[in-house]
Amino acid sequence: MKRPYRILLGISLILGFAGWLSVDEIGRALFERQIEQQVGWDLRDDLEAGLHVGFCGTGSPLPDPGRGGACTFVIAGERVYLFDAGEGAAESMALMGVLPSEVEAVFLTHFHSDHINGLGALALQHVFRGSVSEPLPVYGGPGVERVVNGFNEAYALDHQYRVEHIGKEAAPAEGFELEARPQTLNSSALTTIFEQDGVRIGAFEVSHPSVLPAWGYRVDFGRRSVVISGDTTYTQALVDAARGADLLVHEALAPELVSYIELVARRYNHEGLALVMKSIPGYHASPADAVRAANEAGVTRLALTHLIPGLPNHMFDDLFTAGAEAAFNGDFWVVADGDVVTMPENSRVQYLNVR
C-alpha cells in the first residue's frame, strides 16, 4: 500500500474511533492521563546526577499572566533548595515536577513582597504533598525572623482548620510552620552559610538601595556551580562571587521599555505607575550590566530572569536585550517560567522547558 493511502486509512481509523467514544469519555481519559502525569512525575528522575537550575518564577511585580513572582530552585543530587518564593512559587514548582514537600530550605535574597509573598502557600503545599512533620527552614539576613513570624501568624487559623479537618497524620501541625534561620555577613564578600551532603551555599551582598539586607547566593555541588544575583545593579561583590561558576542567573530590567511604560502612564494620568517606572532603573541591572558582570567573572553561561517588564514569549527577547548578548561569548538565555538549565556532573549543559 502506498504511503498516501496508509495515511488516509490511519486518519479514517482515528476519526472512527473518536466518533465511537463520547466527548465525556475522551475528556475523562485526558483528565486521568493528566493527573497521572502530574501526581506521579518527579523531575529528578529525568535528570542526570549533577546540579540543575529551574525557573519557577521569572516575573516582577508588574501584571504578567505568563510569569510568576521571583522563584528559582536548585536541584543538587537529590536535594532541592529554593531561592525566593514569590507569588505562585509552590504551584509553579509542582507543574515542573518538583514537589514543595521536597524543598530542604528556602533562601531569601531580600524582603520585597514579590520575593516572599508565596511563602504562605509554599508552607501549605510543603505539608500536603508529603505529610512533612518538621518546619521549613527559611534562611536570610537580619529581619527574616519578622517575615517568617508574620507568615506563621497570618496563616495560623488556616493551619488549625487544616489539621482539624484532615487529621494530624496527614497534616502534622509542625509541618505547616516556617522556621527562620537568620544569618549575618561580616563583609560583602562570599560567605558560606549552609552545608549539607556535599552542597555548599554561600551568600554575598549586592546593591539594591535602599533595601537592606540584599543578597545573592552561590551554590556549589561536585564540579558544578551556579550564582543567583537577587535584585541588584552591577556589583563587584557579585563579580567576585561568580568567578569560576558554570552559570550566572542575573535579574534584568530593559531601560528603554520601562521608559516607554512611564511615558504611557503619564499620558493616561497614572502618576503612581509613572513614578515607579521612573525610579526602578536605578536599582536594577540592565541586560548590558548582567553581560558585563558575567564577562568580568569569566562565566560562560548567563540566564536573565526577574524580567522588567515581562515578555509574552521568546519572540521579544531581542527587544528586551537590545543587543547586549552580542558582547557575550557564551550561552545566553532570557528565561521563562518552566525553563531548566541542567548541568550534569559529566556531560554537557542543556537548556529546556519542562512545562
Q: Would you tell me the overall average pLDDT?
A: 93
Order of helices and strands: HHEEEHEHHEHHEEEEEHEHHHEHEEE
Give the percentage of residues in beta strands.
15-25%
What name is given to the CATH topology of the largest domain? Metallo-beta-lactamase, Chain A
Rg over CA atoms, rounded to whole Å, is 22 Å
CATH H-level homologous superfamily name of the largest domain: Ribonuclease Z/Hydroxyacylglutathione hydrolase-like
Tally of discrete structural domains? 2
* Main sheet characteristics: 8 strands, mixed
Note the total helix count: 12
CATH architecture of the largest domain: 4-Layer Sandwich
Shape annotation: globular
Uncertain stretches: none
> How helix-rich are the residues, as a percent range?
25-40%
For this structure, what is the CATH class of the largest domain? Answer: Alpha Beta
Briefly say what this structure is.
By secondary structure, this protein is an alpha/beta fold. 35% of the residues lie in helices and 25% in strands.
Description:
The chain is an alpha/beta fold and 355 residues long. It folds into two domains: 1-41, no CATH class; 48-110 and 184-353, 4-Layer Sandwich (Metallo-beta-lactamase, Chain A). It contains twelve helices and 15 strands. The strands form two sheets. Strands 6-5-4-3-2-1-14-15 form an eight-stranded mixed β-sheet. It has a seven-stranded mixed β-sheet with strand order 7-8-9-10-11-12-13. It is globular, with a radius of gyration of 22 Å. The protein starts with a helix and ends with a strand.
